[in-house]
Amino acid sequence: MLHTINKSPFETSTMETCFRFLQPGDPVLFIEDGVYAVQAANRFSPMIETLQKSNPVFALQPDLSARGIDAVAEGVGAIDYEGFVGLVEEHQVNTWF
């Protein structure tokens, strides 16, 4: 199952809630304000690093660019809209608001 997170972890606990329901191998895609979670060297970096041991992690590049985020945590894949569509075609989607 693909999990999408669109809320900033600095404002809500959506990300932590999502992480409790993940199964190993489930991809996680950060979109909209959710991309703040994968910005390099922030307080959520250790959580992202731990997550990557069992789950692929992606961030939507247009949302990173729109928020001026140039550096993301190591191992986070930046994808475009075509990549987003590809993930949606491969997985059922659970959107975390």
Q: State the distance separating the first and last CA atoms.
A: 16 Å
CATH class: Alpha Beta
Overall shape: it is globular
Number of strands: 5
Separate helix tally: 4
> Quick one: CATH superfamily?
DsrEFH-like
CATH topology: Hypothetical Protein Ychn, Chain: A
Strand-residue proportion: 15-25%
String of helices and strands: EHEHEHEHE
Radius of gyration computed on alpha carbons? 12 Å
CATH architectural name: 3-Layer(aba) Sandwich
Sheet with most strands: strand arrangement: 4-3-2-1-5
Provide mean pLDDT, rounded: 97
Instruction: List low-pLDDT spans.
Output: none
Main beta sheet: 5 strands, parallel
Number of domains: 1
What structural category arises from helix and sheet content?
A: alpha/beta
- Percent of residues in helices comes to 25-40%
